[in-house]
Description:
This protein is an all-alpha fold. Helix content is about 60%, strand content about 0%. The chain is built from 8 helices and no strands. The chain has helices at about 5-15, 20-30, 35-45, 65-70, 80-90, 95-100, 105-120, 125-135. Helix 1 crosses helix 3 (about 35-45) and helix 5 packs across helix 7 (about 105-120). The longest helix is centred in the N-terminal third of the chain and has 15 residues, at about 35-45. Residues about 140-145 have low confidence and may be disordered.
Amino acid sequence: xxxxxxxxxxxxLNLLRLGMxxxxxxxxxxxxxxxxxxxxxxxxxxxxxxxxxxxxxSDLLDxxxxxxxxxxxxxxxxxxxxxxxxLLCLGYSSKHIGRVLQVSPRTVDKHREHLLRKxxxxxxxxxxxxxxxxxxxxxxGKQSGES
Length: 147
């Protein structure tokens, strides 16, 4: 973990890694929504991730066989959805993912919707946190307290 993070930023980082929204973080910590957003922004800057969505998975997607290791096959996730999932968890926007995969951003959004529905999740942040937890359960990734 980045030693330049303040104790409050470390707390926010751990909550972001759980897939919590800024509103949820504000409620949990008893701070204002704008303050939670500022903390999230500072965490993003200090950890050098593209998006706070990428925080849970920032160290996890380097393995080529990541999908097999987290057993996505039983969830009936298509190959296109796997590619979108990987890029979402790296923090890329739908527009950027569309460029990389040579599809429209709307197609990327549809794949994201399908993933969320299949996994019964509400947000991309939750999706990234879910993937990180799957990694942790099979012993691939770092736990949120490790560096």
